[in-house]
């Protein structure tokens, strides 16, 4: 959670980066059961960096962005990993409320043919994620 606070305090680009992570964390929270991996918000942010341009400006979603989403989904094989990812998402969504970035981030999983289990929202209940 500390990386999100540092990013928000940076340049104007920072909120968009956080929103990209938020959208993709929603996908991670629904990831099918598989090999367990300890996911950190830092890992998620780095993996989802290719999505930043889309969240900022719209347009085409880069293949690297969808590959990052799918990578995170495959790494989030346990309920604790999915809940941790959800918590990162919730924090990021809270910081992005009211801006255009959140709606773009919400649409990313669908554009990459991945169905998240819950709405990207500052009000999501991460304890209900299995």
TrEMBL record:
The keyword Lipid biosynthesis does not apply. Keywords: Lipid-binding, Signal, Transport. It comes from the Eukaryota. Residues 1-37 form the signal peptide. It comes from Lolium multiflorum. Residues 41-126 form the Bifunctional inhibitor/plant lipid transfer protein/seed storage helical domain. This is Non-specific lipid-transfer protein. The keyword Signal applies. One of its GO terms (molecular function) is lipid binding. GO terms for biological process: lipid transport. Belongs to the plant LTP family. Plant non-specific lipid-transfer proteins transfer phospholipids as well as galactolipids across membranes. May play a role in wax or cutin deposition in the cell walls of expanding epidermal cells and certain secretory tissues. InterPro entries: Bifun_inhib/LTP/seed_sf, Bifunc_inhib/LTP/seed_store, Plant_nsLTP.
């Amino acid at each position: 959670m500390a990386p999100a606070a540092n990013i928000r305090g940076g340049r104007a680009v920072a909120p968009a980066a956080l929103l990209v992570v938020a959208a993709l964390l929603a996908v991670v929270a629904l990831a099918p059961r598989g090999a367990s991996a300890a996911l950190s918000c830092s890992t998620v942010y780095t993996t989802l960096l290719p999505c930043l341009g889309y969240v900022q400006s719209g347009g085409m979603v880069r293949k690297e962005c969808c590959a990052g989403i799918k990578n995170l989904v495959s790494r989030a094989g346990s309920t604790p990993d999915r809940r941790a990812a959800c918590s990162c998402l919730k924090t990021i969504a809270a910081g992005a409320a009211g801006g255009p970035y959140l709606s773009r981030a919400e649409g990313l999983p669908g554009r990459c043919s991945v169905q998240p289990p819950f709405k990207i929202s500052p009000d999501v209940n991460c304890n209900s994620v299995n």
